[in-house]
Amino acid sequence: MNRTRPRSAAALVLLPALALTACGSGTPPGATPAGAQASPAPTDDPVAAVRTVDSVAALLPADVRESGTLRIGSSVGSPPGAYYPDGPGKAPAGQDIDIADAVAKVLGVRLDRQDASFETILPALGSGKYDVGTGNFGVTAQRLRTVDFVTYINDGQGFAVKKGTTTLKKKVTDLTELCGLTIGTGAGTTFETTLTAQKGVCAKAGKKPYDVKVYSENGATLTALQQGRIDVIMSTINGLRHQAAQPAARTTFLGEYHRLDVGFAFRKGSPLTKAFRAAVNELIKDGTYARILAKWGTGASAIDASRINPPEHR
Q: Are 148 and 308 in contact (CB under 8 A)?
């Protein structure tokens, strides 16, 4: 995060709090600066009524059932995924927080939630620092080589521009539509991977290449858009849609570009995946899942059933 306030500080003071969670993107804990106002969390609590389901809890390894605790690496950024409605140091809220808490209740375990920056969580799973990770992690073929996933929502990639811009006026369906523009996105994300892998499309089309600016914090990406240092943001569908609904963000959502399943992440070969899949499916069956998504306005991203390591959407 750039801690130096721009001249238009009054207009931009809310922007970091309106930044995005990511399908591969996140904001380091405590990134919202003093004075920024986060969106208040909805007051309904669909997780409160969730109870342990013994048949599902029995799928956990014996040592986990005995300890009763799972260490979860959690990337906390902004709504609707995960954010701090009352500021850093207070309890996080969001769709990912509610789903993880509900799964833990079905499994009869306590979550030892440890805030972490997005790009550190997947490597830490392999080292054993965390048992499970959340951060709106998109399921990709590349990630499936080293990480196992249990899906809980379908999100994906999209684009947004500053409200009133004439640079892009409609849904982006092909990256050649971005040729000659500067695109802002998150470090270590599926968005950065996509943009880097496809950077040659403009030259093939006889157009000027697009430029990619990578930011480690989502608030900095949005500030760059409003200050005109980038032309367009590439980030999550749900995050961009939520952001565009906030007047202070002053952005326009340009629609979906590529859908991705999103899931809990585990080290390869983790014995926890079957229990987590069964827990998510229990929440889908009893209606808690739908109520959580309704709470956060993400019902369009609902899945019918959780899966372990589904192939990447093409």
A: yes
Q: How far apart are CA 255 and CA 157, in angstroms?
A: 9
Residues 209-230 have pLDDT tens digits of 999 999 877 788 999 999 999 9
Integer angstrom CA distances of residue 64 from 67, 98, 111, 114, 193: 5, 21, 11, 18, 35
- Alpha-helical runs (H) found in the chain: 9-12, 54-57, 62-67, 95-107, 118-127, 141-144, 190-197, 201-204, 218-226, 237-244, 273-286, 288-296
Distance of CA 278 to the CA centre of its chain: 22
Calculate the dihedral angle through the C-alpha atoms of 272, 274, 279, 284, rounding to the nearest 10 degrees: 140
Q: Record the tokens describing residue 100, joined without a space.
A: 């993880």
Would you call 74 helix, strand, or coil by DSSP?
A: strand
Residues 6+ apart with CB under 8 A from 150: 263, 264, 266, 273, 276, 277, 280, 306, 307, 308
Cα–Cα dist 171/91, whole Å: 36
Q: Which pair of tokens denotes residue 126?
A: 């392999």
Which H/E stretch holds residue 305? none
Token pair in block for residue 220: 């900095």
3-state SS assignment for residue 299 = helix
Q: What is the Cα–Cα distance from 182 to 243, expressed in whole angstroms?
A: 20
d(CA 237, CA 275): 28
| CA separation for the pair 10, 30 (Å, rounded) | 21
The token pair at 259 is 């859908």
Does residue 190 register a pLDDT over 80?
yes
Q: Where do we find the tokens 């799973």?
A: 125
265: which 2 tokens?
């992440």
Q: Are strands 182-186 and 132-134 parallel, antiparallel or unpaired?
A: unpaired
Q: What is the pTM of this model?
A: 0.82
Token pair recorded at residue 256: 């979906």
